[in-house]
Amino acid sequence: MSRRQVFGVSLLLFVLHQLLQKGLSIHLPFFHAYLDPFLSMPIVLGLLDWERTRRYGWRPLIPWEIAVVALLFVFLFECGFPLWNPAFTADWWDVPAYGAGALVYGSSRPHAQV
To answer: Is residue 30 part of a domain?
Structure first.
């Protein structure tokens, strides 16, 4: 599966999950807790890859860059926001979800540059 396909499937799953959760009030606790962090990585990384390759003509993201983006998300959402505002709660089980999403995106093959 290409990175573009992983991005598309992730975006579709994210929209479907939001429709189920907020539109139809169907709550699936495990998915409600961990699907968003998992899907955020392929979505954000896909947008970043698109900007780099299509807009600037650079090479696709390489593994260490993907890892840095995932770590930035962990520090921002699990450390930074909870310190900044008590309304945010750190959930350290989100860390494996971010990591798994980054691994799924990173293990898919980069799309060919056009």
So the answer is: yes
